[in-house]
Amino acid sequence: MRRRHLLAGVASVGVLGGAGAVATGSVPDGLGFGDGSEPVEPTTLPTVEAPGSRDGEVRIPADGRATFVDFFGTWCPPCAEQMPALAEAHDRLGDEVRFVSVTTEDVGGAVREEAVADWWREHDGDWLVAADVTAELFTRLSINGFPSARAIDATGRVRWATSGTHTAEEFVGGIRRALDG
């Protein structure tokens, strides 16, 4: 009986620690994610023709360049709420980092590309937007909810991993971790 209580207590600490990582917006290096130990295998995604974006493809992470990836959904109110903070971060660092927002919605299928472009326009998006319809990148980057973001350095290693809404300052700080490698 005591062993069962001990195991339950240890499991609770793990759950609370993980929740703390999400709440603080960063993943502790000891967890093995976000510590830059393994490069992310590149994924090529189709882009959405929208303001600041283009019709075509984007490779994430970019070759030899830091990449910031924001995962969003057009159905997600917190995703819409943080768009001004993302826009400010893009205005400040967009020349230094490949800045991409990615949706896992079925763009071109159940969701019309025009609907994503309209949402993008309505929320003042002005950078690359891509569709991860198969959730390949979503899975590779261990995304667990929306909104989520990853800052990846020029060698393809995640330097900042976060979920939830953030301020422009928090985004800039996370992106700088990737730029500083």
TrEMBL record:
Entries under PROSITE patterns matching the protein: THIOREDOXIN_1 (PS00194), THIOREDOXIN_2 (PS51352)
SUPFAM superfamilies per record: Thioredoxin-like (SSF52833)
GO biological process: cytochrome complex assembly
Principal subcellular localisation of the protein: other
Keyword Coiled coil on entry: no
Domain Thioredoxin: residue ranges: 39-181
Compartment list: Cell envelope
Keywords: Cytochrome c-type biogenesis
Coiled coil stretches, renumbered: none
Protein name: TlpA family protein disulfide reductase
Source species: Halorubrum rutilum
